């Protein structure tokens, strides 16, 4: 039967290899379809592949690199290399590490990978066909059930990173050697100001000089950029971290359409995989997703995260009091949580924009400073955006984080 959606020869070659390697013969039919819409992904095209065999149907999700030339400002080839490193090498090694230690509730919160093609295509299980869905961040804010689930998932990932580094240091160091630091250029200069400076400038520019005077006096663009641009490499407790932790890089499973109480979470998009303090991931997801009520319970959520981190490290055979003491975690939270705020300046706007407002990375000119600093020339939800950002700013000030 003819396909409704045409795919490249590279995709077909990868699928043929998957059919062979996973013994999916004899294959009766293969169909392809576009799997995502604008606003769901910014560096890739998503394709759904349905492979019908005599024994059943296999649903795959293919992540394909956009056909745009990689640049220093937009190194999507290195981003895909990081993600392929995770699926081809890191995640299998972590899974074996768990199995060898008989840990049944460790980090398994990433989709199964069926195969990759060079540095351009990743074929995974189609989680949406299993009922997993994106959280509706354009209309809702994560409640306690979501935040608890997400923080525990990240705690599991950070725990196995700590334990693997502790017990398999040579292998861990090889992982790190292959990681690309996408937040610094080849000269070691931070690219955060280029990528996220526009979001911060936009937030500050829309503050009222009288009503928001304290925020303006405490939040200086240059100081904030300096703190988030240099802190990633200064921690003494670096482990492999996910890096890109906003809402659309998580899929949730529900029961009977009950979106208030998710059953499971899967973390997707590992393109910013790189060593960092765990606080970079924790502050990113928590500060961009938390409601006013959640922010008022920050201390409790930090303890929840650390309890799970500690429990996981112990059952993996290492000592959390040596690898990452609770006192150090709290100290690093105070030092590095500015990163989550800085990322929120752009991420929250992305979360609140409508599909027709979402910027198209393929059409973004890295040399166009105005376009890079204002990728949302049309944005109707500015009032809600400023409400959330001012709430975050007050949180940072009231807790002496800035």
TrEMBL record:
Span-the-membrane segments of this chain are: none
A Pfam entry, by short name? EcKL
SUPFAM superfamilies, alphabetized: Protein kinase-like (PK-like)
- From what superkingdom does this record's organism come? Eukaryota
CHK kinase-like domain mapped to chain residues: 122-315
The protein's name:
CHK kinase-like domain-containing protein
Organism expressing this protein natively? Oryctes borbonicus
